[in-house]
Design a protein that fits this description.
5-stranded antiparallel β-sheet; single chain; Rossmann fold; 23% strand; alpha/beta
Length: 534
């Protein structure tokens, strides 16, 4: 069975991202605050932001950058990122976003694969981006250090943001088809393999902002906290573009620090807080939360990885606010599901409703047959497939991976295992590639991780497969103790054993200081498996 969204159908405009976000600015919008730098409180209005975007577009065009070119953007969440991103798109070029923590080797690989000929970065990241760009053949005068001293003063001749803004060159006339022209090439996280370039068109990005709007209903009164990285598609679409398109205020944070995160929410009176599950754990359990006034929050939305219903309720009860969950992936621009702000009847452990214009199938992971949905309770697990206007054009330079991911009828394999009930609510069980095979049984690590987090003595946890001669694989838990907690391996094993079926029992436990996670909040299980292998 193919499930369709219950929202009314959408008409996707034939517009570029720039036209969609900035084309409808009214005179009264120009003095409205668009972006606030969280650490300093510095403000940029919509009028100033549009002026910066056009100036950067003109400066890039004067450097020969335009339709068909790729520009790499390697920076944390700062106001200049917003100007640079939209300036690149307005020039007609394509952006490839580079994760802030990337190494020089990773940057070189991404720049070579994407074909980037210019890189925009910031001075704290230059130690990696400089050598990476040089190795990829990008010369120093095509590495823009936004907060640098400028081309004349820099011994390497790196231009800075002031150089771009002061060039005086007009924004170019550009002509392209938004449905086929690439706006962005983000790279998939690589938590389960080598990162691949994801080709997202202008129409993909515009469509997904439109699709997300009916559920989240942001408007000009909202102040949106942007701590999740703009270099990740979640931050790029759901924070940056959605907030600006609906004239909200975007409050940027360059990195996550719990005290600074809480202070920014308090001082900036942010109404919408977008997080990943690791931040939800802190909001539910850390004593520091009680020291700040977080009463302005109207909703918290968790994405990037599955959020357990128990943890969602704990955050909601502690903050006295709505906690929502959404689902997406880079290949979907990224959103396919979200819990609407006005639907308190939806299970907080579910990923919510299909966004407008989307369709879904759930198929058996062994046979590919449609999963039957019972009259009560949940279905058997199956892989979720999605189709809609937000689906990527494919993987860059990788037709084989594209063909393996997108069916001829347009349905994209998400690689996520879900269960569905008769009301259409979808519950993510785990990633297909992460399932632990214990004596033929499939054990989802996310289920065990959610259970472990309910223990008062556990601050964080991750579960991976551990090789076993008899069982094939057994679940192993990596556990971070709460400060001052005395917790043994046997106690953790017993806690889980009392609450799950025998195949799902944790058989090994290792205590560590921190769970490795990506910038978007995903558990890096490959790092934990490598730790075991070592």
């Amino acid at each position: 069975m193919t499930y369709a969204s219950s929202f009314p159908a959408l008409t996707i405009p034939d517009q570029s991202v720039y036209e969609y976000v900035f084309g409808g600015l009214l005179p009264e919008d120009l003095e409205r605050v668009a972006v606030i730098d969280g650490p300093s409180g510095a403000e940029t209005t919509y009028g100033q932001l549009r002026g910066q975007v056009l100036a950067i577009a003109g400066s890039l065009a004067a450097r020969g950058i335009g339709v068909g070119d790729v520009v790499a953007l390697h920076a944390p969440n700062v106001p200049a990122f917003v100007s640079a991103f939209h300036g690149i798109l307005r020039s007609g070029a394509t952006v490839t976003t580079v994760t802030a923590l990337s190494t020089a080797a990773e940057i070189e690989r991404q720049l070579r694969d994407s074909g980037a000929t210019l890189l925009i970065t910031v001075s704290p990241l230059l130690a990696a981006s400089g050598p990476g760009a040089e190795a990829a053949g990008v010369p120093a005068d095509r590495i823009v250090v936004m907060d640098g001293v400028g081309a004349e003063a820099d011994p390497d001749g790196h231009p800075n943001l002031r150089d771009l803004l002061a060039s005086g060159a007009p924004a170019p006339e550009v002509d392209f088809d938004p449905a086929t022209h690439l706006a962005a090439i983000p790279y998939s996280s690589g938590t389960t393999g080598r990162p691949k370039g994801v080709m997202l068109t202008h129409t993909n990005l515009v469509a997904n902002v439109l699709q997300t709007r009916p559920a989240l209903t942001l408007d000009s009164h909202d102040r949106v906290l942007a701590v999740l990285p703009f270099t990740h598609i979640y931050g790029l679409t759901v924070l940056l573009n959605l907030a600006l398109a609906h004239r909200a205020v975007l409050v940027t944070m360059p990195r996550f620090d719990l005290a600074e995160f809480l202070r920014t929410i308090q001082d900036q009176r942010t109404t919408a807080v977008f997080i990943a599950p690791p931040i939800a754990v802190a909001l539910a359990k850390h004593p520091m939360v009680d020291e700040y006034d977080l009463s302005a929050i109207e909703f918290v939305l968790s994405g990037a990885a599955a959020l357990d219903a128990h943890l969602a309720r704990a955050v909601a009860d502690r903050l006295g606010t709505l906690v929502l969950q959404g689902y997406g992936m880079t290949e979907m621009s990224p959103v396919s599901h979200v819990i609407p702000r006005d639907r308190d009847d939806i299970d907080r452990g579910s990923i919510g409703l299909l966004v407008p214009g989307s369709e879904m199938r759930v198929v058996d992971i062994e046979t590919g047959e449609e999963v039957a949905v019972p009259a009560s309770g949940r279905s058997e697990p199956g892989e979720m497939l999605i189709r809609g206007p937000q689906i990527m054009a494919g993987y860059l330079n990788n037709p084989e991976a594209t063909a393996a991911t997108i069916e001829p009828d347009g349905f994209l394999h998400t690689g996520d295992i879900v269960e569905i009930d008769a009301t259409g609510q979808v519950f993510v069980v785990d990633r297909l590639k992460e399932l632990i095979k214990y004596k033929g049984y499939q054990v989802p690590p996310a289920e065990l991780e959610a259970l472990l987090l309910t223990h008062p003595g556990i601050a964080d946890a991750a579960v991976v497969a551990f090789p076993d001669d008899d069982a094939g694989e057994v679940p192993k838990a990596f556990v971070v103790r709460q400060p001052g907690a005395e917790l043994s391996e046997d106690e953790v094993i017993a806690f889980v054993a009392d609450r799950v079926a025998p195949p799902k029992k944790v058989r090994r436990v290792e205590f560590i200081d921190a769970i490795p996670k990506s910038a978007s909040g995903k558990i890096l299980r490959k790092d934990l498996r490598a730790r075991d292998a070592a």
